Every structure is written in C-alpha cells, then in structure tokens.
Amino acid sequence: MSIQGTERQIVHTPLQPTSIARIALTITLMITLGFSGLLTMTFASRISNEPTQHALTDPNFSSTSRLGSTSHLGSQPTPPPLLLPSPSPTGPLPPALPQAIAILQAQNRLLYNGNTSLPEIALTFDDGPNPYYTPQILTILQQYNVKATFFCIGRLVADYPALVKQEYTAGHTIGNHSWSHPNLALLTPASIQFQLSRASDAIETAIGVRPAFFRPPYGRMSVQELTQVYYDGLITVVWNDEGEDWARPGVNAIILRILGLARNGAIILMHDGGGDRSQTVAALPFIINGLRQRGFHFVTIQQMLMDLQHHTNVPGRDNTLPDVRREARCDIPAGGRRNGKRYSWVISLPECES
Ligand SMILES: [Zn+2]
Fold first, then answer.
1. CATH code where residue 269 lies
2. Does the pLDDT at position 118 exceed 80?
C-alpha cells in the first residue's frame, strides 16, 4: 500500500535527472527493505504463533508431551514420541452422548479397543492399588513377562504410593480412575474436575509423571464428563472384553468369558482392588496362557494407542471368534482362524487340576 503510493509520487513529480536517479535508488532500497521486512514479519509471526496457538488451544499438545514423558518405562526401549491426531472440536462436544463419543473415537481420544488388524491385547486392572492383591498380580505379570495397565483410584494411590511406583517401574502404564470412584456422569463440572485433577496429582506424586489415560468408574459416561476429561488432556479408555470378575462368578467362568470375547485389539477389564480378587489372581495365568496359545501378545494401553495411530486397519481381516463353549470340562479343545493362520488350543481350567 505505501509502496504504490511512493511510486505514484515519483511519476508525477518533475525533478532533475541526478535527483531522479538518487531518489530512484532510495526508493529501490526502501522497496527492497520494505519487502524483506514484510517477509521477515510474516515468517516471524508464523514461527512464533503456531506453537503458541497449539499449546494454548490444543488439548492434545499437553497430552502429547505427557505421553512422551511417560515413555521411559523401566528397561523398556524408548518408544517413539506419540503424535496424536490434531483436535477438533475446539468448541464444546455435541450435546448427545453417542455423537460426542463418535467424535472422540475418531480422534483416538476415546478407546473401546486397539488396532483390530493386530493380534495384540491390553490387560487392564481397575480399582487398585490394593496391598494384598496388587502385589500378587504384579508377580504373575512379571513371571509371564506381560506388560499391563493399571487404572488406579487416587485416594488409594495416596495411601499406597509405593505400589503404584512398583507398577510403573515394572513397565506397566498407570491410568486415572478418579479420586474416590463415584459415578462421574452424575456430578457437576467442578466435582468432575476435582475427581480428575486430584487423582492425577496423587499419581504424579507417586511416579513423577501425570497420567495420560482415564477410565470412567462403572464405565459411566456423560458429555459433561467427557468434555472435562478431554480438556484435562486425558484419553478415555473403556473396554470390549471382561470376565465380570467383580461379581466373583468363579475362576472358570472368568477365564472362559475372557477367552471367548478375546479378539484383535481387545481391551480386557479386570480388577486388582475393590473387594476379594482371589478369583482374578487365580484366573490370570490361565488367561495369559490361553491368549498366547491363540497367537495374541500383550501390550499396554500406551502401546496400543501408538499401534492404533501408526498402522492402518486391514479391510476384510479374518477376525473370526473361536468357538469356546462353557462346558464343565477340565480341558476344552478349541480352535479358530485369525489373521489367515489356523490356531488350535486347549483351555485348561484350574478347578480341574489336582
Ligand atoms: Zn472401578
């Protein structure tokens, strides 16, 4: 704008040739400097604005850095930094819960399962830490070299921080399961915020990093709750396989139900706290062996999220569920096809041993 004005002034003002040459030189310099100044300003504003806007408006920005900071797990190789998909909505989630869930799922900010093209499964344990059952579960996981995920209740983390530290240093992922396990879907935004942040604070005090994952107590969700979780930088993790171990249906029933529902990318819900978990402890080795025999391997929720982001699903995959019958037999032969391979296995039930 100012450049055009200057050019117009040169054309219409009568001057001596030497003066014209001097002014032309000055104008050329001004144009050059003006342009480079403009370019510099444009570049500078791009460089300075983009990360700043990201940090201020992008809830993923903080969660990415949190996930990165949780990646140094024990002697595990450092996984590549997580690149979460760019967010939208930047505004409120839609008022209807199914739509809100769909939007969060599309952004990998709410998981019911992992990558369904990979034979990987995440074992998750809720409601701990528990001074009696959590150490037993940790011992089994160590014996079988399995990494899992623990969704901890904040006030129990404050009571037993050493147990959570033990989980974390063993390479397991630690998630937020609220401060005192209420149904968050019924609470006010302020109370939801309190439940989330106080639990994350307790976990950070115990292990040195804030959790990146959240599991809603009772699996109950509301738009209000998911909005709070989203803007807190947490990823909601639900499940698609469980043995209903909380109801203590018997060791066999837990094993059969979990093996029957298992599939690629399954997230399995179990409990290391909240009551008598001796059935869960007894079932765990059989669940691990049963799933391994069928070609699955175990990952943490953090690894599952990374595999969800870095691998595309294969259309037309063979995800046939095996035929596992709930028969009162000691050894149940079973088989099925998965990812083009044929597997056969025998489910051995612990109550038949001896
Ligand atoms: Zn729970």
1. 3.20.20.370
2. yes
Confidence of residue 343 (pLDDT cuts 50, 70, 90): low
What CA–CA distance (Å, rounded) separates 158 from 107?
32
Q: Of 80, 125, 102, 122, which is closest to residue 306 (Cα–Cα)?
A: 80
Degrees (nearest 5) of the Cα angle 244, 105, 149? Answer: 45
Q: Is 327 inside any structural domain?
A: no
Ligand 1 center to residue 184 CA distance, Å? Answer: 11
Number of domains in the chain: 1
The answer to whether 42 touches 27, Cβ cutoff 8 Å, is: no
For residue 187, the CA-to-ligand 1 centroid distance in Å is 16
pLDDT bucket at 319, cuts 50 / 70 / 90:
very low
Task: Identify the bridge partners of residue 297 per DSSP, sorted by sequence position.
Answer: 120
Q: Report yes or no on 250 lying in a domain.
A: yes
Of 75, 25, 113, 50, nearest to 305 by C-alpha is: 113
Please give all residues whose CB falls under 5 A of ion ligand 1, grouped by chain where several chains appear.
126-127, 217
Q: From the CA of 305, how far away is ligand 1's center (Å)?
A: 21
Which of 239, 226, 211 is CA-nearest to residue 125?
239
pLDDT band (50, 70, 90) for residue 308: confident
CA 134-169-184 angle, 5° bins:
55
- 322 located within any domain: no
Asked whether residue 331 is domain-assigned, the answer is no
**Which structural domain range is residue 296 located in?**
97-314
Query: 119 Cβ partners below 8 Å, 6+ apart?
Result: 264, 295, 296, 297, 338, 339
Is the model's pLDDT at 87 over the cut of 70?
no
Task: List CB contacts of 321: < 8 A, sequence separation 6 or more.
Answer: 260, 261, 263, 336
Picking from 24-38, 104-118, 162-176, 267-281, which range would have the lowest pLDDT averaged per residue? 24-38
Which residues are catalytically annotated? 126, 271
